[in-house]
Amino acid sequence: MAERPTIERLRELLSYNPNTGVLTWRVSPMWAVAAGDIAGGLMTNGYRHVRVSGQLIPAQDIAFALFYGRWPTVILDHRDRDRGNNRISNLVEAGSSGNNRNRLRTSRSGFRGVVQRGRLFVAQCSVDNRTRRIGSHSTAEDAARAYDAFVLTNFGDRFPTNASLGLLK
Length: 169
Hints:
Homing Intron 3 (I-Ppo) Encoded Endonuclease, Chain A, 4 helices, single chain, alpha+beta, 3-stranded antiparallel β-sheet
């Protein structure tokens, strides 16, 4: 893989507004794009990418690099799960496990982190690529509350809980 452009080169070419998350061109990179235009384009996966020095680079990585003066060391995650929201307050270095934890999904129980085993509902969470059993409960709602408590205690409000997703009353 080719070396990423330097931060200095990014600053020559691009401007970043941390309040809006928008990258714009400082100089025209080609005849069809003017200085001041929004940089890059949306990919089919919903992420914006920008071509700099012949490389297609995720816009969130460029935004992070321009703001902090360094490239991210791990995968960046969008706190609100909106792939187009590149505000600096929405970007966090999460790594692949943290990024996966922030995905929206529920089990067949209807709750995040809850599976049914016989007549009991088990609250569980994946930590460091290992499934951690939190506890068994007689109702799916109690197991969901246990899962939420575990997530809030161990990860803070960074990851979605059943309550934050509106799955618990």
